[in-house]
Amino acid sequence: MLSALVKEHQNKQQIRREEQEQKRKEAVQASNKLTQALVDHLNVGVAQAYLNQKRLDTEASQLEQNATQFQKATNQWLGLVSSFASALKEVGHVQNWSNTIHKDMEEISKTLEIAYKTSQST
């Protein structure tokens, strides 16, 4: 009778150990799944951040190229405007020169008229 109780007790302990081992394996599997899910979730964020950074780098490079082209175009426009301003100054000088010659010619014309009238009256 005592041996039967001992055997029964040992069988129950064996069954509890097996149940415990099964629950331990299930807990390990659950923790592995949780860990994998967390890593996957973090990897998605990291991958998205990497793609965003890559896109930002590309756009920054494109912006730099556009800025360089804009700077070149601006320098060309500044050169053209400077040339245009110089040409306008020259036109102003030519106009001033032609006005001066026109006045001189009018004076010469008036002087010749007066001289002609004077020579006709004498």
Element-by-element helix/strand order: H
Helix content: over 70%
Provide the β-strand percentage band.
Answer: under 5%
Number of strands: 0
Based on Cα principal axes, name the global outline: rod-shaped
Q: Strand pairing plus helix content: what structural class?
A: mainly alpha
Low-confidence residue ranges: none
Computed Rg: 52 Å
How far is the first residue's CA from the last residue's CA?
Answer: 178 Å
Structural summary, described in words:
This protein is an all-alpha fold. The protein has one helix and no strands. The protein has one helix at residues 2-121. The longest helix is centred in the middle third of the chain and has 120 residues, at 2-121. The radius of gyration is 52 Å and the shape is rod-shaped. The model has no long low-confidence stretch (mean pLDDT 91). It comes from Armadillidium nasatum. Belongs to the BLOC1S1 family. This is Biogenesis of lysosome-related organelles complex 1 subunit 1.
Task: Name the descriptors.
single chain, mainly alpha, 0% strand
